Amino acid sequence: MTTWKDQHAEAVRKQDDAQKAYQAATDERAQALIAGVWELGSQAAVARELGIKTPSVNQAIRAYQKKAQKRTD
């Protein structure tokens, strides 16, 4: 029989897994955006190509770079 504590522990494990997957996908998205900037020459060009606003591209890249910088500090 599964106790409520077991159910809670399993739910917490699933949340942790989901958070890790989300963070990995966020990093992959930022890396793709950076590659797009290299290819197209600007964040604005990437945004136009994807049909999103330039600040969204900028924010994703900056957050990724900040996170990467913290890893090297």
Describe this structure in words.
By secondary structure, this protein is mostly helical. 88% of the residues lie in helices and 0% in strands. It is built from three helices and no strands. The protein has helices spanning 4-40, 43-50, 54-72. Helix 1 (4-40) packs across helix 3 (54-72) and helix 2 (43-50) crosses helix 3 (54-72). The longest helix is centred in the N-terminal third of the chain and has 37 residues, at 4-40.
Query: What does the overall shape look like?
Result: elongated
How far apart are the first and last residues' alpha carbons, in Å?
A: 47 Å
Helical percentage: over 70%
Largest sheet: none
Q: What is the string of helix and strand elements?
A: HHH
Topology:
Layout: H1 4-40, H2 43-50, H3 54-72
Notable traits:
73 residues; mainly alpha; 3 helices; elongated
Brief summary of the model shown:
The protein is an all-alpha fold and 73 residues long.
